[in-house]
Amino acid sequence: MTPAARLSGAIDLLCAIQNAPRRPADATANAFFRERRYIGGGDRRAISTLAWDVLRGWRRLHWHLEGSQGEISPRLLCAASMLLSGTTMDQVRMLFSGERYAQNPLTPREDINLKHLEGKELSSQKQPIAIRLEYPDWIEPALRETFGSRMADEMEAMLGAPTLDLRVNLLKGTREDALRALKREGLNAVPTKLSPWGLRLDGRQPVTAAQAFKDGLVEIQDEGSQLVVAAADARPDNRVLDYCAGAGGKTLALAMTMENKGHIVACDVHEKRLEGAVKRLRRAGVHNVERHLLVTGDKWAKRRAGSFDRVLVDAPCSGTGTWRRNPDARLRLTPEDIQELVIKQSEILDRAASLVKPGGQMIYATCSLLAAENGQQIDAFLKRRTDFVRVPTEDLPELLPTELREKAQFSLTPLRDGTDGFFACVMQRLEPVTQTEEAPST
């Protein structure tokens, strides 16, 4: 595809995203490209990059275009994004040529709205901080509660594009095997600093076309997500429950740490997500996983109360820790969402706790930056359930890096750790106290 055709594709993709405001942009993009299978891998990456640049700079672009005549359309946003990234006005006009596969020429009004942006930068100290750092105004107190004086630096780190992290599947080979296999296909990965199984690539790379991915030697998984699995410390003789398994990313990693032994139950309330795990499990060579769909009135949990050595609760959350990867989520999130999620997380914790056997552990995790979903949620749970305690630091698994074993709960951020934003806490269910009869006095 020509640069003009790629630009046209990015504008069409942004229109599709705009027309489905409550749907995650990556889901819209997947559907968009499925319907256009003629678009090759390189062109898909280029189109996605153009569209995601607009989503990452959404508030700043609108600030620059404030006072524009007419609608601030995806056409205008794409053109403004290019101008504020160093493209000249003449180059932009050439891309809007009206020729085959190109967008129609800029209208006089669009031209007027855009030409004053030439030579300017996307970020400006004149912008209010919430606009410059691309977060909703209403969430600032919660971010300051989490980060204090580091808030601006942490949120600035959220503006960049994420790395592409892989987890080596030790059921299929070593990290060195994976490095060599990827290098043969021109993918130069480096080991991650914190995860013992991680590899990292810069930017968008065609990993799913690589033989190492097709053979199940590597899986796409952020380093932070890998560390949540490390915290679970699932062992070959364990019965493990992945309570909010989704499409099975952490389930796969749990199976690896268990050496494909023991038993894992992957649960979720969404059937399609569980179905999506089947292909991934097969590719990874995993065969110790049972899937279960959670439905209202299900007696499954009641029958298995207190039977699992490990219960991983990767709770539904605001996703604020993934804003680098999902910048559109900043635009959809509302205060009401947070209120509803905190209630849901509390209910899930209580249900999952009943499935942990005495002496077993529950691992609570989110990809949120907010204290209300993280530490405060744990504090409230431990007040309700006095039979649970945070695991002592000396008992945390050695798989975790030393700096993360210093606390029974840990958080990760792009600025400090180079990962998505994650929170995890390991709790243990206490053994019931046995009452002993006092010896009679003589």
Automatic annotation (TrEMBL):
Entry annotation: catalytic residues: 367
Keyword Flavoprotein part of the UniProt annotation: no
Keyword Lipoprotein applies: no
Alphabetically ordered keywords of this record: Methyltransferase, RNA-binding, S-adenosyl-L-methionine, Transferase
Alphabetized SUPFAM superfamilies for the sequence: S-adenosyl-L-methionine-dependent methyltransferases (SSF53335)
Xref: PROSITE patterns: NOL1_NOP2_SUN (PS01153), SAM_MT_RSMB_NOP (PS51686)
InterPro entries in the cross-refs: MeTrfase_RsmB-F_NOP2_cat, MeTrfase_RsmB-F_NOP2_dom, RCMT, RsmB-like_ferredoxin, RsmB/NOL1/NOP2-like_CS, SAM-dependent_MTases_sf
Residues holding S-adenosyl-L-methionine: 268, 314
Domain SAM-dependent MTase RsmB/NOP-type: 154-430
Pfam families for this protein: Methyltr_RsmB-F, RsmF-B_ferredox
CDD domains xref list: AdoMet_MTases
Family: Belongs to the class I-like SAM-binding methyltransferase superfamily. RsmB/NOP family.
Name of the featured protein: tRNA/rRNA cytosine-C5-methylase
Organism: Gluconobacter thailandicus NBRC 3257
